[in-house]
Design goal:
By secondary structure, this protein is α+β, with helices and mostly antiparallel strands. It folds into two domains: 30 residues; 117 residues, Immunoglobulin-like (Sandwich), CATH 2.60.40. It contains one helix and nine strands, in the order αβββββββββ. Strands 1-2-8-6-7 form a five-stranded antiparallel beta sheet, with no helix packed on it. Strands 3, 4, 5 and 9 form a four-stranded antiparallel beta sheet that branches. A hairpin with a 5-residue loop joins β1 and β2. The longest helix has 26 residues.
Length: 154
């Protein structure tokens, strides 16, 4: 009986360690992608976050902000990477890159559209929204880092 109990404890310990390693490699991803060269011409300001409940009983997290085109090209698309950090300032969540969408209307609810529907001309400024269906519990609650990875411009 004692040998069987020891074997069960060892197996459980191995399973827990394997799950923890898988969890850490799945949620803490390296920052691999380089920022787009035109990203310096697109400063992001006024970042704010909010949450709402969805119909499935979960919550959706929104990241709203303001972007300006200080360059000389018309922007038709922006791909961003959003990095949520933990209390040790390590990347706790590195979602796949997503397309930035501009806020089209605010009443009766916020509606977004792709940038290609209303390109960002030189000197223009617009509000944007990024949507996250899930944010890791390891997140420290501070605003995440938004990196512009790719800019489509004319």
């Amino acid at each position: 009986m004692a040998i069987a109990a020891v074997v069960v404890i060892v197996v459980l310990a191995v399973v827990v360690i394997a799950l923890e390693r898988h969890k850490s490699t799945a949620t803490v991803a390296p920052i691999a992608a380089a920022a787009d060269a035109y990203a310096d011409s697109l400063p992001i300001t006024g970042v704010a976050m909010s949450e709402s409940a969805n119909l499935a009983g979960g919550k959706v997290t929104y990241l709203d902000g303001h972007i300006a085109n200080k360059g000389n090209r018309t922007v038709t698309g922006i791909t961003v990477q959003v990095l949520f950090r933990n209390s040790a300032q390590e990347v706790a969540q590195n979602d796949p890159p997503q397309q930035m969408k501009f806020i089209r209307t605010r009443d009766p609810y916020i509606d977004v559209e792709p940038i290609s529907a209303a390109p960002l001309k030189p000197g223009d400024e617009r509000d944007f929204r990024l949507v996250f269906d899930a944010v890791t519990q390891d997140w420290d609650g501070a605003y995440p880092q938004v990196r512009i990875l790719h800019v489509q411009a004319q």
